[in-house]
Write a structure and sequence with these properties.
single chain; about 130 residues; mainly alpha; 5 helices
Amino acid sequence: MGYRLLADLVVAIHSAYVAFVLIGQILILVGLWRGWGWVRNWWFRVAHLVAILIVALEAVFNVACPLTTWEQRLRERAGEAVSRGTFIGDLLHNLIFIDAPPWAFTAGYVTFALVVVATFVFAPPRRRGA
């Protein structure tokens, strides 16, 4: 499998991670409002909380995202510009990366993490059988 395809695969995984965090929170809020029991699933909620905490802590401590680093290295090995890939790779890349100062990302990630934590505390997940 070529490095270019592997880089695109990493971008796809990265996009799925972002979608899990964003869409997951939307579904949790809508589900709480609508009374959907599955949004209180313990494993889903813990995985969701951990996912955004990882992102927020990386931003606060200025740690590069491993998926971004991995994609960049694979693109370099493929002999292409770091920001260029296949059509789908570029599309997914452009969905999750925007031009903004680093402080804006840190503020956004931490704020979103606080919303997720607040949701976790005020509408806690339930363990099966508890």
